[in-house]
Amino acid sequence: MYERHDPSFASLSGKRQVRRIAQICAFTLLVFLGLKTATARAETGAATIRFDVATRVFRIDAADTSYVFGVNENQQLQSLYWGKRLGANDSFPTAKAMPESAAFDPPITTTPHEFVGWGVGLYVEPDLKITFPDGNRDLVLKYVSHRIDGNQLDIVMKDISREVYVTLQYQVDAETGILRRSAEIENRTDAPFTIEQVEAATWNLPRGTDYRLRYLTGRWAAEWNVQEQPVHPGKTVLESRRGTTGAQNNPWFAIDHVGDSDQDSGEAWFGALGWSGSWQLAVEQDQLQQVRVTGGFNPFDFGYRLQKGEHFQTPYFYGGYSSHGIGGASRMMHRFEIDSLLPHAPTPKLRPVLYNSWEATEFRVDEAGQMALAEKAASLGVERFVMDDGWFGQRKDDHAGLGDWYVNPQKFPHGLKPLIDKVHSLGMDFGLWVEPEMVNPNSDLYRKHPDWVLNFSGRPRSEGRNQLVLNLARPDVRAYVYGFLDKLLNENDIAFLKWDYNRNWSEPGWPAVAPEDQKKVYVDFIRNLYSILAELRAKHPNVEIESCSGGGSRVDLGIMKLTDEVWPSDNTDAYDRLLIQDGFTYAYTPGIMMAWVTDSPTWVNNRTLSLEYRFLSSMQGSLGIGANLNKWTPDDFATAKKMVAQYKSIRETVQRGSLYRLITPENNSEQSVTESVSRDGKQAVAFAFLHSSRERYPFPRIYLRGLDANANYRIAPLDGKLAKDTPASASGAYWMHRGVDVELRGDFQAAAFTLERTGGAAGN
Ligand code: DGJ
């Protein structure tokens, strides 16, 4: 039988002891009442972490998930199970390392470890690799002790001879069963050593060969493509070497069984890293068909010298399990992000409808022009007016000004105050674009501090978009960046910053520090970014921040903890956006996914789309408007006003609800349909898009999901395209099994409708 085991109970404070006793009582009750009670606890969102003293097995249970691992005969931590929640009384035998199946495949390599050092003969991805000053590079970590505190488990491991300690940190989210894993390395030797590779965690899946990997790839203006491939023997590496998250790969993965093509059924394991610098996820199937995913800092060009007595913390690697397919996995991620991760979790504010000036004016911003746009935006029901690039320094185009964060006196002779006051008088709050980590060589800042950028001494400094990257790892750069932002927010009534980052790194040198410490830039830069964001938020608690990186190049669970929303792509073509938004939502909630309605034909590909289509595409996320309102007709204003009002009536459902991909736009599908169901189950909204119809085929019938079969729902079109024989009201069972027909024919057509629960059981 499992028991709670906490060697350090006596060291807890009185309040925590009381909590611990309550936990033990609850657990004892659980054992007495058996499985029935255990299920009830899962339903109420309880999480338990247990350690069986006799078998030395750890077991973490939460929501629908059990995660089990043990200390094996080699004192190493070995994975035993990760999947659907097991019976409360199920027990596991002591973990046993894999036997040597051949001299070529030693147990250290074939045993599924939780966290393994590079030593002995490890041929799979290590979690930790260290070079000591004497040239020794062998590291063998063994279990020392552990501590359970509520939903947190810490396990201390130590090298067999050297004073290198690693604390593995596990935290479980009671509501979703998502685990947060990380590691802390401590140097208790009497000399510095260099960490050459350190990962946050390794996730081991049940042994198997029928797995499919999903991951996200992209590039500027084409982010968030969902890729699928079988997990083969060998290794697939997803990574960024760019110094930042990047769009080429996003630090997210999901693995399910080949053949489970249904979105909402089957098993899926998934994970995402909370790190906005260079990162790596290695998905490996070893010689004995063990599948593992190891993730954390990218070991490429990595090196962190840890001084005697210093600690080093890895980022968090989150992982979860869904028995409701890949759709269930993303719903779980969305729920976790909203309830546990975002800055104001569990009650992040709904995203206001915003207007952004970028596509309308680009760098040509000035007081009169912005005021005129603000008036027009306000008439549509917009709640936030954001002035984009161009307001500062000598910024006329992208060749100058970055780094000089004073208000341009020609464009805004009286500062920002008149514009901000005007925006406020129109009933909106005010937001401003910044790109704090960058500098143009043509700027006062660069002329004064040419040594502040990433560079290798005496080597060229490669520009991207005519700009260089400030080395935020430097304390003086950090102080400058924090200082100007704090001043900007002190002096102006700003509610929102759009924080942009328009290139990746080149020549990532840091000549001001010792050669052995220069690679610390990969870590210290991002830590300073996070600390600036955290400090600004603490000092200006009402200011919201958007993470933008020339589109969606910096979206991950690390930056998400410190920002309220993200910009997924510069591609604002409403048709392209269907695919972009679909991919985005595999990993991230639509509640932070900004989606602007922009002009037609689009700058992206010259496609012409109706204003209704553009609105319905954007209404699947957090709605914004980025069009040049000076060119709109009265009819456009009337349509937009109506649709903004409609969006407000469904916004909570879209931003907080459960998302179902009824037809995905992947693989060049002619149609796509999404559905969101509100948390309280009272409202559902569906969006349907047709690329082009063929041979008079009707649009596929839409079978809704996630409704209460026994409740009644009234249907209402957002745009009058429901089939004429659609009943005004029917049961959830009817809408889910008989389905809904919409009249869509032609090219680039869209429809949307809502279902409102009218209360009571079906037929009442
Ligand atoms: C890139 C962003 O993604 C755009 O929305 C815009 O803010 C420009 N930068 C401004 O330079």
Question: What can you tell me about this protein's structure?
Answer:
By secondary structure, this protein is α+β, with helices and mostly antiparallel strands. The chain contains 15 helices and 36 strands. The strands form 6 sheets. Strands 6, 7, 8, 9, 11, 12, 14, 15, 19 and 20 form a 10-stranded antiparallel β-sheet that branches. An 8-stranded parallel β-sheet has the order 28-27-26-23-22-21-30-29. Strands 5, 10, 13, 16, 17 and 18 form a 6-stranded antiparallel β-sheet that branches. A hairpin with a 7-residue loop joins strand 11 (211-217) and strand 12 (225-230). Helix 13 packs parallel to helix 14. The longest helix is centred in the C-terminal third of the chain and has 23 residues, at 634-656. It is globular and about 75 Å long. Mean pLDDT is 93; it is low at 1-44. Bound molecules: (2R,3S,4R,5S)-2-(hydroxymethyl)piperidine-3,4,5-triol. Residues 358, 388-389, 433, 500, 502, 548, 550-551, 567, 570 line the site of (2R,3S,4R,5S)-2-(hydroxymethyl)piperidine-3,4,5-triol. (2R,3S,4R,5S)-2-(hydroxymethyl)piperidine-3,4,5-triol (DGJ) binds at residues 358, 388-389, 433, 500, 502, 548, 550-551, 567, 570.
